[in-house]
Structure formats: C-alpha cells, structure tokens
Write a structure and sequence with these properties.
Strands 1-5-3-4-2 form a five-stranded mixed sheet. A four-stranded mixed sheet has the order 8-10-11-9, sandwiched between helices. It is built from 21 helices and eleven strands. By secondary structure, the chain is an alpha/beta fold.
C-alpha cells in the first residue's frame, strides 16, 4: 500500500515532470492558473513520486507544477508517496480525466500504456476511471491514427468523432487520403459527411469480395472477415450508421484477394488453361469489368445477342472445348475467356460469324422496351422447358436405337466425331497432327473433323479409341503415362514399356546407320 507523507514545501528545482499522459495544455487557462498562484499561492499540494534513487517526479498536479514555474515560485507544497509505475500512471490518468479534460489522444496513449505495459483489461480501466468500456474502446481506437491525422486532430481541424472514424482505416495510404480530404481549418466536416466519404472511397464491401469471407485459413494468422474486428458489423460502436459488411483494411483485403487468385491460377494451370498476369489483364479490361468491342477475347459469361436463345458464350462454346484463358478484371473478379481466333471455327460452324466482332460489352437492341424484354424472357422460358423435354425423350430413343442396331459404321463414325468435339482443344489438335493434318490449330481441327465422314466403321473405331486415349496426353501434371492411355493399352494389349524401350533405342540406331 502507498505510504502518505505530510505535505511539505519542495524546491521546484528538485522535481522533474516525469511521465505525463497529457502532452498538450491550453495556454490561456494555464496562464490564468499561474496568475492565481502568483497572488494566492498553491491551494492544494501536488503529489510527488519518490523513486528508488531518491529522485522526485510529479504523479498528480502537472498543471499546478507548470503554473508555479510561470508564476515565478521556487517551491511548491507537495506530498510524497512511493508508487509503482502502474499506480503512477493510473493516478495521472484519473487526475486528467477528473480535472481539466485532456486531449483524447493523451487519454488514448494512457489507456494504451495501461493495457500493454501493465495488462489492464477494459473492465479494469473502466473501474479505475469510471468511464464505460465503450468510451475507453473508442479512445483506444485513436492509437491507430498516423502522424498526419494526429497533427490535424491536435490542431482542431478534425472533430473527435471524425478522428475515431479515420482511425478505423488501417492502411496508411487510405488514412492519409482521408485526412487530406476531411481536414478543415474552419468549420470541420461533420460526422455524417465524413462517414459517407470514407464508406464510399476507403472501405471495401465484403459482399463483393473475390474470396471467401468465412475462410479462417486463407492467410496464415489472419482471421476470417466475418470474425475480424475491422469488419464494420463486428464493432458497431466504431462504425455507427455504416453498413455492417464493410472492410477497413485495404491491405488485408488485397492480401486475401491475391491469395485466392493464386489458388485459382494454380488450379487453372493444372487443368491446362492459360493464365494472364495482372499487367496483361489490366490492359485487356480497360473499361474495368467489361471487354471493349474488338477485343481479341470473348468472356464466357457474356451473352451472345445473335443467338436466338440469347445463350452465353459458355453455353455455345463449351461443347467444343476451346482453350480457356483465366484472368482478373479491375474489380479483381476472375473471368474465363476464349480467344476469338480459337472460337472462330466454332462460331462459323454455329452460323454466328457476325457475333465474333462483339464482346462482353455487347447489349440488347437499343429499341427494346421493358415490356419487350419481359415478353422475350417468357418466350425463352417456354422454349427451354420444351427443349429439355425434347432432349430427354430423344436421349432415351438414342440409347434404345443404338442398342438395337449395334455398332454399325454410321454409329461408329458418329461416336468418333462426337468424341473429337467433346475433348479439349489441345487433345483434338494432338490427334489431328498425329494423323498428318497441318496448318494452324483451327485448320488441323477442321481438317480432321471433316475427314470422319469418309472413314470406315473400323477406322472410325480406331479414331474414337485414339481420341479418348489422348486425353491429358502431354500434360506435365500426370504420371509417367496418361491414365486414359494406360487403360487403353491394357484393354488392347499394348506394351507401353516395349514402346518406351524402342523410343529410347531409336537415336542409337540412327547414329549407327549414319556411321
């Protein structure tokens, strides 16, 4: 327990100010106190702390101590106690709160010291200072203010509530921009206007996040967004009147977005897709989220308006398996693309040659009214229901008829052609080249596809087996041999090890023959 000592006159020269949680004093009130002390003396003793080395520092009464110097006094009445660091800080805070209000930044620094240096909880500080935990929490938020914000706040160019709002921005760039926009020498910007600006320009909507907001393992050591205190909905006392799903840490948001993009890109590469880097994608998506007209790419999620059913490019092109390209647009959304040059043969085959000149920026005819669009949607729904019923019934008929007729030449040619159109573009190109077709990839594909009609049933069966065996044939992500090829070799009694031995021996035979 602290030991009290009777008040005595202590020379001011024997006292140092020590650690004061209050760093700024208003000059006018301090001058008034100095004038009072010069006339009437110090009416209430200050409290001094005796250190182990005999030095004396002020524990409470900093204003009276400073005013006494201004008044020209040489001594000051004081009581002396032996205090711990925590007790001295606690007394200092309480005095500043109960007497002339300190600046909120000074309070924040004091509360922060009690938390970090002496492990005080919010409840502990609340009990000692008679302030509510919400009040203390809002003050502690000010610890996150950078130097530009602190300077503007101390100069009274920012309101208290606006300072707390700015402190919720955790990256320095956003905070500095907010300070520059919200600082006013006269008539500081109000809370509502400041919140509207910050929510619109410096917070990110988690509903639109290009990553899972519930994944606590996306970035090591970082909680899920739903559990993060920087999500507006998790700290309502700091984000009053703001939507509850806003993120205040752009740096963390981008880290999670990049981590998700890396995972997506790795999966895409494993499937044999091409991935554009952000520099290429930024140039490609010059309009933000849409491809401009004349783009060398088609977005698979965009609508082909020349199609009678207004299907997406995904629906139109997917059965032909063109090479897929993955990219991020300027809103960090993952977009699946196809090069126009790869899609062109398919577009021509579908009778949509004109559509290739348009991109995802295409829109319905300008003359359409809302009534036209509603009527068109109803027609499309009816057509889709009819189409589904027809397709389902036809598929039953196909199975029954094929089982009844057996593997005729026509059926085998059909199976070969459909297998060719259903495998990846890379697989179809490989088989085309193995069969002697030359030219561009599209030309090879078209040449092989047109040759199927002239094949016998046995030749069509050979092509069918070759196409299905070639899936993932040259992928670097499979084992020694592609799984489909291994199964085909086992079924057809082909010795892959013997083929490997012949391939490895071929260079040596050529060398001997040349010699």
């Amino acid at each position: 327990m602290p030991t009290a000592v009777v008040a005595i006159e202590v020379p001011l020269s024997d006292i140092s100010e020590g650690n004061n949680t209050r760093s700024v004093y208003d000059e006018a009130p301090l001058a008034e106190l100095a004038a009072s002390i010069a006339s009437h003396g110090v009416q209430q003793p200050i409290l001094l702390r005796m250190h182990d080395d005999g030095k004396l520092t002020v524990a409470a009464g900093f204003r009276r101590f400073r005013a006494s110097f201004l008044a020209g006094r040489t001594t000051i009445p004081a009581t002396i106690r032996t205090l711990t660091d925590a007790e001295a800080l606690e007394l200092n805070l309480i005095e500043n709160l109960q007497r002339a209000d300190p600046h909120p930044l000074d309070e924040a620094d004091g509360f922060h010291s009690l938390q970090t240096a002496y492990r005080y909880t919010l409840a502990d500080i609340s009990a000692k200072t008679s302030k509510t935990p919400a009040y203390i929490s809002r003050r502690l938020q000010l610890i996150n203010l950078g130097e530009p914000a602190r300077a503007a706040y101390r100069a009274r160019k920012i309101l208290d509530s606006v300072a707390v709002l700015i402190a919720t921005l955790r990256d320095e760039v956003s905070q500095a921009a907010a300070v520059a926009h919200l600082t006013r020498d006269v008539d500081p910007i109000g809370l509502a206007a400041a919140r509207e600006y910050i929510d619109a320009h410096h917070r990110l909507n988690l509903k639109d996040a290009p990553f899972s907001t519930t994944d606590a393992k996306l970035v090591a050591g970082v909680p899920s967004c739903n559990a993060c205190p920087k999500r507006s909905g998790n700290a309502l006392h700091l984000f009053e009147a703001s939507p509850t799903d806003l993120c205040s840490d752009r740096s963390c948001f981008m880290t999670k977005a990049d981590a998700t993009w890396t995972q997506t890109a790795e999966k895409a590469l494993a499937k044999g897709h091409e991935v554009l880097d952000d520099a290429e994608a930024s140039t490609l998506f010059s309009y933000g989220t849409h491809l401009p007209r004349g783009s060398p790419y088609l977005s698979l999620t965009s609508t082909c308006w020349d199609d009678e059913l207004s299907r997406t490019w995904e629906e139109l092109l997917a059965p032909f398996h063109p090479p897929i390209v993955i990219a991020r647009n300027r809103e960090l959304e993952v977009v699946r693309l196809v090069r126009v040059e790869d899609a062109q043969p398919i577009i021509q085959h579908l009778g949509l040659a004109e559509a290739a000149s348009d991109s995802s920026a295409a829109t319905p005819p300008q003359s359409w009214t809302p009534e036209d669009a509603k009527k068109r949607e109803q027609e499309l729904k009816k057509e889709r229901r009819t189409r589904k019923a027809v397709v389902d019934q036809a598929l039953h008929s196909v199975a029954e008829r094929a089982a009844a007729e057996g593997p005729t030449d026509a059926v085998l040619r059909f199976l070969a052609a459909e297998a060719l159109s259903s495998v990846s573009f890379d697989t179809a190109r490989l088989v085309s080249q193995l069969r002697g077709f030359t030219g561009t990839s599209s030309e090879c594909f078209a040449g092989l596809a047109s040759s199927v009609a002239a094949l016998s049933g046995a030749q069509a069966l050979g092509l069918l087996s070759q196409v299905l065996s070639a899936r993932w044939a040259h992928s670097p992500h499979v084992g020694l041999h592609p799984p489909a090829l291994e199964r085909a070799a086992e079924t057809l009694a082909i010795d892959l090890q013997q083929i490997r031995a012949e391939v490895e021996a071929a260079p040596q035979k050529r060398a001997k023959k040349a010699a």
